[in-house]
Amino acid sequence: MNFLSALGAGARFSSDVALEQLPKPPASPFVPGNADSSAPPGAVRTLALTAVLLGLLTLTFCLLGIGNPPQPYYDEHYYVSAAQAFLAHAPNPNAGDPPLGKLLIALGITAVGDNALGWRIPSAVCGALTLVAVFLWTYLLLADFQLALLAAALALLNNFLFVMSRVAMMDSSLVAFLMWSLVAYTAALRVEVSVTKRRILVCSAGLLLGLAGACKWNAVDTLVVLLVASFVLPWIARTAPQSWQGSLARDARTLRQIGNVTLLVGLVVFPALSYSLMFWPLCRSLGLSFGFHQLAEMNRFIWHFHRTVMNNVVMSSRWHTWPLNLSPQRGLSYLVGNPIVSYGGLVALIVCARRLWTSFSLPEGLVVLLYLANMGQWAVTPQHGLFYYYYYPLAMFLSVTIAIAWRDAPARVFGVRTSLVLLLAAAVVFVWCLPNMAHLGPPWDCALGCWS
């Protein structure tokens, strides 16, 4: 069975006596109703086609007018100059960050040209890949096609994805690798494949997390969450109350099949390997020998830089203000989270946390841990000055969290589909913000009202 067929099978697992008592997922043409059946070919094609169309539509949308403004803005000049230096084999003017995001910008310059489109097209591609990953990850967690579409639509409308996919900075590539690592890890647990393929998926998740870390170090928080989940879940399954056993048994058994050795190699060795290898092109460009000593020196400098650099106090903000923030970051395309998604996501997070008190479930457990870990890191980071756009990964998690919490929401109220009302409300806010986020000039910048 190939990977797409396995995805089409969704949450289908081998049936034993204990698992026969588990509640079945909602009926869907994309989830087989019989544990012994194969995924319908039409369902696999629909899932694959939907993922491709979502990616292409998102990429097209993000590329429209991406060359405006034509000059670097906000922090783009730091990363664009580093990419230009890499291509010119010149000293790196921005050695305070890992190299992969800047190497991707250099690839865009090589492919398209040293212009606004070339600088920003890697971020647009990563943004499209992020949306596809949100769709597939939600589907793997819930085995529900409509909820997966809901999560993808909310991710597109939350403002963060659109803005960060149109700026030549590191966050779009960071989040793309992060989200695909979650797809690979969840597929290892939830897709019916051989043990060997499960192990390959875990190692793939580790490789992707290493690439995310080679864009920005804060990928380590997601790595820690997956490590904790991998080793704590089997232990909880042995000690948890009987009411939790049904939802825990399946994932705990799968993790035991994968094995502790594979989990350690896949989530420790492979991330370190892929992260380290991303420094090789930079060393080659600078004419430096690639080895442990050089790698240690480069990373020591990154650590020292972030501990000592003084950021712009005017643009920085306190981390605990981000979830409820309604003030746009004017220097960065008037970035402000769509309150329908931001506030709704917090409510959904509370709903998911409450569910965990009564019965453990992997979807709720993952999104709660991922949000808390990625938010909590900013409370202890030694960096001077934090910026609102750091909330981007958490905005993606909130989109998925809403879809998870929506499983128990009424499908219709007074004959109106509730998910459609949610999407329409989010779309209205997004469209109102769009002229400023897209840097449209007069009169379109105030076509729907001006920022005060």
Low-confidence stretches: 1-38
> Which structural class matches the secondary elements?
mainly alpha
Helix fraction by DSSP (H/I, runs of at least 4): 55-70%
Q: How many distinct folded domains? A: 1
Spatial ordering of strands, largest sheet: 1-2
Task: Give a quick precis of the structure.
Helix content is 64%, strand content 1%. The protein is mainly alpha-helical and 452 residues long.
Question: Which labels suit this protein?
Answer:
452 residues, mainly alpha, 64% helix, globular
Structure in words:
The protein is built from 18 helices and 2 strands. A hairpin with a 2-residue loop joins strand 1 (412-413) and strand 2. The chain is globular. Helix 10 (220-239) packs across helix 11 (242-258). It has a two-stranded antiparallel ribbon with strand order 1-2. The chain has one domain (3-446). The chain is mostly helical. Mean pLDDT is 86; it is low at 1-38.
Layout: helices, strands, pairs:
Layout: H1 3-9, H2 41-63, H3 76-87, H4 100-112, H5 116-142, H6 145-157, H7 160-164, H8 171-190, H9 195-213, H10 220-239, H11 242-258, H12 260-277, H13 280-286, H14 292-308, H15 339-358, H16 362-380, H17 392-405, E1 412-413, E2 416-417, H18 418-437
Antiparallel strand pairs: 1-2
Helix pairs in contact: 1-2, 2-5, 3-4, 4-5, 5-6, 5-8, 5-17, 6-17, 6-18, 8-9, 9-12, 10-11, 10-12, 10-16, 15-16, 15-17, 16-17
